[in-house]
């Protein structure tokens, strides 16, 4: 175990699970962590609090308000069927060697490979008509092999549900939540919390409330 002078590390930091993931496996991490002088992040309150598994910041596009239509125009992922390699706009996902090897083995020219796209964060914002009704629907998707959620537009939701070949529907589970907008604030909170919890159990969606930051009065209008 390496020794770090106290002046070169930050210790006793804490995350609730929505900002850091394990570098090996990318599963979300909640708990104490510390940072060394080079900026690397590890589990534990201090270097002596072992095991010190390395963490990285969770890369997400939750805060990028890019429309689904714009996303479908942007080549964010070049996917092959059957779970084979793909090119993404994230440099951590790009594997040129795998792509070339795969296409060579399959005798498939790159320029003839069908292109599909990833969904992006594009929340369905309630309208004045929704507020008059008192509720509306929010649309989401979860990566099938990771605890990664994304709030999406109804258009993207419909494409995933309809298994549109232009979008990588094989990688995501789409779902929606009826969302209360008006009424007594405490009742709105309880209703949306209960709906979220029931959906989480029914569809086996771990940490859904954490993704929503337990903000069950989001978009509320009294």
Detailed description of the structure:
With 222 residues, the chain is an alpha+beta fold. It has three domains: 6-57, no CATH class; 60-74 and 117-222, no CATH class; 75-112, no CATH class. The chain has helices spanning 68-73, 96-106, 128-133, 154-161, 185-202, 208-211; strands at 10-15, 20-22, 31-35, 41-43, 54-57, 77-79, 86-88, 135-143, 149-152, 172-180. The protein has a five-stranded antiparallel β-sheet, with no helix packed on it.
Summary, kept brief:
By secondary structure, the chain is of the alpha+beta class. The chain has helices spanning 68-73, 96-106, 128-133, 154-161, 185-202, 208-211, and strands at residues 10-15, 20-22, 31-35, 41-43, 54-57, 77-79, 86-88, 135-143, 149-152, 172-180. It folds into three domains: 6-57, no CATH class; 60-74 and 117-222, no CATH class; 75-112, no CATH class.
The residue ranges in which pLDDT falls below 50 over 5 or more consecutive positions are 60-100
Strand arrangement within the widest β-sheet reads 1-3-4-5-2
Query: Please, how many domains?
Result: 3
Order of helices and strands: EEEEEHEEHHEEHEHH
Largest sheet: 5 strands, antiparallel
With helices defined by DSSP (H or I, 4 residues minimum), what is the helix count?
A: 6
Structural class: alpha+beta
Helix share, percent: 10-25%
* Head-to-tail CA distance between termini: 55 Å
| Total number of beta strands | 10
């Amino acid at each position: 175990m390496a020794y770090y002078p106290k002046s070169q590390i930050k210790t006793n930091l804490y995350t609730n699970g929505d900002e850091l993931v394990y570098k090996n496996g990318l599963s979300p991490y909640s708990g104490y962590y510390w940072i060394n002088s080079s900026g690397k992040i590890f589990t534990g309150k201090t270097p002596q609090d072992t095991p010190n598994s390395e963490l990285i910041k969770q890369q997400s596009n939750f805060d990028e308000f890019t429309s689904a239509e714009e996303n479908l125009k942007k080549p964010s992922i070049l996917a092959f069927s059957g779970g084979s390699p793909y090119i993404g706009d994230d440099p951590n996902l790009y594997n040129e060697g795998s792509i070339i090897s795969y296409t060579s083995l399959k005798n498939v020219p790159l320029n003839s490979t069908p292109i599909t796209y990833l969904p992006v964060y594009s929340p369905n914002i309630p309208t004045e008509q929704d507020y008059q009704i008192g509720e509306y629907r929010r649309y989401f998707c979860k990566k099938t092999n990771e605890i990664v959620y994304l709030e999406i537009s109804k258009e993207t939701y419909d494409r995933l549900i309809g298994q549109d070949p232009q979008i990588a529907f094989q990688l995501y589970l789409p779902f929606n939540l009826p969302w209360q907008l008006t009424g007594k604030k405490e009742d709105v909170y309880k209703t949306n919390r209960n709906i979220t919890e029931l959906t989480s159990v029914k569809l086996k969606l771990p940490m859904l409330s954490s993704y929503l930051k337990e903000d069950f009065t989001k978009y509320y209008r009294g």
